[in-house]
Design a protein that fits this description.
single chain; alpha+beta; 5 helices; 30% helix; 24% strand; binds magnesium ion
Amino acid sequence: MVIRTPGAVQGLRRANRATAKLLRDLSRMAQPGVTTRALNEYAMDYITRLGADPVFATEENFPGCINTSVNDAVVHGVPNDTVLKDGDILSIDAGMVLDGYCGDSTVTVAVGNVTEEHRRLIATTREAMLAGIRAALPGNRVGDIGYAIQTYAESRGYGVVKEFIGHGLGRKMHEKPDVPSVGRRGGGPVLEDGLVITIEPILVEHSARVRVDPADGWTVRTVDGGWGAQWEHTIVVRPRGAHVLSEP
Ligand code: MG
Ligand code: MG
């Protein structure tokens, strides 16, 4: 894993701040009647106007520059003609490469009037991410982050999807170390001051078993149809607590 120089952290901060601003815009746009394709078109225009690279589309061959995952879709939802409805929940994962550095962040938004139980799923997932961020201290280990997320989520009755994990971030979107959203205390590599990683838990209502939807070969859905939410921040590990880079 790579400990970033101050210049690299500054570059990562710029890319992640731009990503966070894009997500803020998309969150406001995500209203009943809007298609996920329209959100993707806005994101593509935003990224290209910055002179940045829509890295999900260009390097990962994903059919879109953002993931739009609705309800029982938990990740890699393909932007298409799906019309958002009142009561849906929508996870938007956005990424870009700006001036050579990667931005990567995810939010889950409530579309219109969402039930209390689904609002609680969204809020608990965000809190689980924040529990993981609080555990990201120098001298702790990667497993402490997963442990914090998993215990927070499971104590509130949610499952944690294990197949999709956080990662180091730099000039490439996926670098070492892997940052699972489950783990055991004291397991895995030691965290150091200056390490830049993503923390990106996916929580689901019931079983955490997931599968790829054969209809498009990308969208990952829960097997039992339960709904899921995801939040993701890019952070830099610091002695007095991690700094979140993906904030507007
Ligand atoms: Mg992401
Ligand atoms: Mg990520």
